[in-house]
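Continuing the batch. This is chain 6 of the set; chains 1 through 5 are on the previous pages. Same settings as before, nothing changed between runs. Recording input and output for traceability.
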Amino acid sequence: MSWHEQLPLYLKNLSDFGTYQDWQIRQADQAVRLYFSNFLMSTSSPEQQNAPLTAGGISTQQEALQHFREGLRLRNYAVRTEKTYIGWVRRYLDYCTTRTSANNETACTSHYIRDFLAFLAIKRNVSASTQNLAFNSLLMFFRFVFNEDLGDLKNTVRAKTSQRLPVLFSVKETGKLLLNTEGTSGLMLKLIYGGGLRVNECCRLRIKDIDFAQQLVFVREGKGGKDRSTLLPASLNKELQEQITKVLVLHDRDLADGYGSVWLPKSLNRKYPAASLQKAWQYLFPSGKRSLDPRTNIVRRHHVIDSALQRAIKVALSKAGIHKHASVHTLRHYAEFLTMPSNQISP
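Output for chain 6:
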């Protein structure tokens, strides 16, 4: 009998004694799981990739991962989200392979999720947000691939949560910072600050999302999949119009070279098959070079990546002489601070 089968009996015996409180029994449960979770996660080997996975008619881990990848793509998850979720599932499957080998078990299922999350919190010292990301990845995996609900894991050892005050720029620092930005990245940083945009929201803007008549910026599929509008700073009108002119020239050049198609969500691509070539749908801040879409193998010009903006703000911070551990999102924090009701601002 494996320790997983013995643990419920042990906990029942503790409960039957009548001398232990509920929190002590939960603590004992966690202690036993942590003891047996003292294994290092290793890099996936060919043997692990082909390890048996006897659930849902799926025979190997690789097959399960492929099913998961297909499920994410059918639901239009972003490429970055797909990579992150797949990465955490791989770590879990590697962990399971080690555990099942040690216990002479053959199935790699959701049996070890509680132990894996405890392992991350205690042995890997991950943050609470990282542990939650790992759990969400596994939640999606077992839901999409095996149609299995993980149920209540509230008694899992939780990583310590920490509350940090956001870094804020003063009015003077913000002015100095923006004065030390230039080019496309400078325009994007000003738009993030003026419109309170998230980094990815700014990167994904398309020409049609800028409304000069109403002085609005339309954000599509923002956090939580929600659309919203925000104010367009009038001071950026000229720069944005110049940026759109540059994009249109670049798009005409791509069309002349036999390209010019831009990525669209599947539903829109089916409904408006010609829209990917239209000027309105082109990214407002396109990449400097064309690249191969990893999902469709179509050569397209994607939008700029957020890491370029992060590098730009580091340079601007250095030039401005601002010595704070800040990022692009700090500009959004400042915009939120300015619009916060006075009764919510701590003295």
